[in-house]
Task: inverse folding
């Protein structure tokens, strides 16, 4: 029964988190957005007191149920392992020694990276962010393509389905594929070996769970040492011969309980009475306590595959795609406050990228900020009324804003390039940038004030401009716009 309950909850959480990354209608955020903030590292980085307190308390009471229920990457590994066993029924697990040195080294590097503000590096082994990159870069494009295919065959008066534009960066796809191959390949081979050897969250919760009130316990009087529990244990943590369970690796999946034919394993509070034959385990327990204290100290130290073609002329002429301008300073989303705050907290989970309806946010391909979102306006601009990215960020890299606050946040300012501007080059009347500026920061002035017939060119009020990119995106000049946005390292209110 415990296994059934665990599986149902795990499937619900996995589907909900997956839909959160796939959905483009806003329904997912409305109903399941809270799940992103109940992931361990996001809760830690955002200093969300209640979720963090609950997630720390869980392993002390129920063991590593977080890894087998709430963590989408962990549940994904269970699914892959389950599929492998269905395909190859001869595939069995077995007890293996813990890779303690590897676990501690990876955890140490992870903690050091967080302490140094290098969350972009730590994110590559952070489970929630890994799963987010897999879904957003691999599943989401396919999901939207299916939606667009259905929308194309809908009746003209039907609004059930509608065409959705999206952006898929090649770098993001490559990272997603590599992550899936590594994590999925290890799960296919040996179940939860990634969780119990590489994942820093698994290591932290594993050492905490040694002291849990409830855990699987082997009853020596009922155990016949058939080894079935060990063969079913995807965490490889049951030593059936010696009737021991390595609780630092046990993910409380309840598979051993459900498959024990003699009922020798129960999910109970372990007896305080020590068995004579287990006296030799005291050394291992002491080592486990030392490892836990080490982990606690470390923890305390840290408080495009395909792009849709846009046409704005009814498809009568081929339109050259816009190219990204060379910016001296990157643009980070409104609500991030500054480059320092954004890059220190962001774990590259790609949730904000998935929720950006205008395709403004995309994974960076630069070495220093690889896979962390950045703003660019080739496909759209940051509408002042849209606050989706600030509402979904689980780590505090983008703080919540309402529409009024966002309209007053200056993330950058527009810069005019005379040699690209149509009125300045050939005298063509334009003014597109001024007409579409949502804050009225651009006015058209005579290129030559002394000449009454002089063409008018844009003049930017940098004190009023918020850096939304409407001017850059809607400039008719291609491939490089005649006006572009230069980012600010520190945002300010205008």
Result:
């Amino acid at each position: 029964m415990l296994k059934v309950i665990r599986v149902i909850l795990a499937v619900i959480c996995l589907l909900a988190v997956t839909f959160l990354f796939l959905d483009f209608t806003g329904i997912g955020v409305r109903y399941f957005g809270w799940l992103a903030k109940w992931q361990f590292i996001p809760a830690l980085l955002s200093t969300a007191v209640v979720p963090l307190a609950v997630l720390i308390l869980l392993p002390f009471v129920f063991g590593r149920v977080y890894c087998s229920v709430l963590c989408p990457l962990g549940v994904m590994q269970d699914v892959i392992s389950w599929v492998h066993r269905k395909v190859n029924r001869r595939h069995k697990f077995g007890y293996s020694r813990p890779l303690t040195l590897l676990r501690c080294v990876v955890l140490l590097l992870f903690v050091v990276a967080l302490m140094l503000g290098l969350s972009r590096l730590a994110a590559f082994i952070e489970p929630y962010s890994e799963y987010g990159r897999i879904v957003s870069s691999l599943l989401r494009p396919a999901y939207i393509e299916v939606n667009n295919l259905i929308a194309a065959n809908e009746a003209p008066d039907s609004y059930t389905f509608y065409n959705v534009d999206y952006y898929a960066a090649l770098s993001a796809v490559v990272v997603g594929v590599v992550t899936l191959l590594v994590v999925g390949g290890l799960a296919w081979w040996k179940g939860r070996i990634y969780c119990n050897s590489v994942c820093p969250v698994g290591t932290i919760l594993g050492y905490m769970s040694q002291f849990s009130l409830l855990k699987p316990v082997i009853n020596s009087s009922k155990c016949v040492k058939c080894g079935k529990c060990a063969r079913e244990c995807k965490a490889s943590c049951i030593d059936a011969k010696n009737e021991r369970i390595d609780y630092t690796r046990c993910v409380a999946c309840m598979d051993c309980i459900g498959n024990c034919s003699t009922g020798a394993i129960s999910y109970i509070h372990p007896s305080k009475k020590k068995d004579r034959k287990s006296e030799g385990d005291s050394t291992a327990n002491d080592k486990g306590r030392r490892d836990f204290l080490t982990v606690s100290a470390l923890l305390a130290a840290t408080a495009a595959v395909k792009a849709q073609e846009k046409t704005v002329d009814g498809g009568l002429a081929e339109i050259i795609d816009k190219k990204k301008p060379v910016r001296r300073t990157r643009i980070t989303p409104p609500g991030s406050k500054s480059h320092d705050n954004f890059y220190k907290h962001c774990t590259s989970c790609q949730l904000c990228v998935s929720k950006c309806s205008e395709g403004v946010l995309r994974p960076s391909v630069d070495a220093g900020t690889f896979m962390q979102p950045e703003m660019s306006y080739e496909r759209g601009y940051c509408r002042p009324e849209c606050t989706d990215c600030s509402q979904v960020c689980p780590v505090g890299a983008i703080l919540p804003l309402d529409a009024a606050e966002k309209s007053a946040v200056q993330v950058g300012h527009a810069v005019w390039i005379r040699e690209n501007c149509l009125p300045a080059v050939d005298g063509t009347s334009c003014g597109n940038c001024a007409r579409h500026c949502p804050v009225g920061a651009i006015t058209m002035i005579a290129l030559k004030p002394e000449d009454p017939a002089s063409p008018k060119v844009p003049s930017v009020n940098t004190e009023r401009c918020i850096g939304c990119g409407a001017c850059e995106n809607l400039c008719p000049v291609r491939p490089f716009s005649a006006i572009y946005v230069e980012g600010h390292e520190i945002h300010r209110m205008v």
